[in-house]
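User: Fold this; tokens only.

Assistant: Input:
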Amino acid sequence: MKKNSTQAAKESAAQPLPMKVDVKIGSIRPSGNIRATASVNLNDCFAIRNVKVMDSSKGLFVAMPSYKGGNGEYKDICFPVTKEFRQQLNDAVIEAYHQAMSMSQGQTPQHSADSGMQMS
């Protein structure tokens, strides 16, 4: 008997595969709400462009690519499905941003090479 897609998804979610997250910071902005843009590659097989590092009164957060709907609300085009992967993705993007900031302020880039994250 064939499994339906919902049942197969539940079974695969029970044993999550490790996700390789490579982040490349494309541009850094010293002021404003958008502090940086990034590209993210997942397991060397899926790329997400136009990920933003945003600044708010609560601190930095990651905003996924989005579009403005007919009702004026912004909707994410792609997004993490699980809480655990959302945390992993956010941590990777924010860490890459901090490393890019350190490099742009004249510190040695050796630390970023050790982390496995790419920056431009």
